[in-house]
Amino acid sequence: MSAVEWYEEIGASDNSMQQCDLLTGIQVAKIERNAVLGDDQPRIRARVALVNAVILTQTCDIEKTSVKMLLLAQMMDWEAMSASMGGDSDEQFQRRRELRRGHSFHMVLLQDRASAPKMEWSVVNFRNLYTVPKSLVQEHVNGEGMRLRMTPPHREMVSQAFGKYFMRVALVDDLQRFETTVEVSE
Predict the structure, then answer these.
(1) Mean pLDDT, each 10-residue run in order, the chain (186 residues)
(2) Global pTM?
(3) How is 104-118 classified by DSSP, letter by letter?
(4) Which 3 state secondary structure label does DSSP give 76?
(5) How far apart are CA 171 and CA 92, in angstroms?
(6) How many CA atoms lie less than 13 Å away from 99 in the CB half-sphere?
(7) Sequence ranges of the domains in the chain
């Protein structure tokens, strides 16, 4: 067990929103795969889906009245996600290890929780991001009841992992020759 609890319980009467609040079954718009061309304007198809998500928008920004949209990342149950990926037990073990060590840059692992509200080992997937009106998130929070909020330093871990994922750049490695260069002293 971690020395610091990963989550705090937020009661039904607390309608505040913070970074790394966990939301269950929130409505998001998912764009269908292809645009439909017609008339003079391209059109897209979207559907509403219910997802479990983590709020990524920083708390200081959520509190601003000028901020109208919040950034959410999809949160998935590890077992269901792993089963959908397939592979033998060695491949699944390797995925678990990479995820735990932070080597899967587009995902971050969240610890399970045995007490209510329960949570299975879960993964935040930064490839599945949603921008949702703050008013819709607030409406969801108001009706959700008991929910979980990540605590420091785990909240910062998720924020940092998202920052690493978002800012990664494939740079040219011109410095490889440094490893093999040997200076001879006279």
Answers:
(1) 83 95 96 69 83 97 97 94 82 86 90 93 96 97 95 95 85 71 68
(2) 0.83
(3) -TTEEEE--B-SSSP
(4) strand
(5) 30
(6) 20
(7) 7-31+44-167
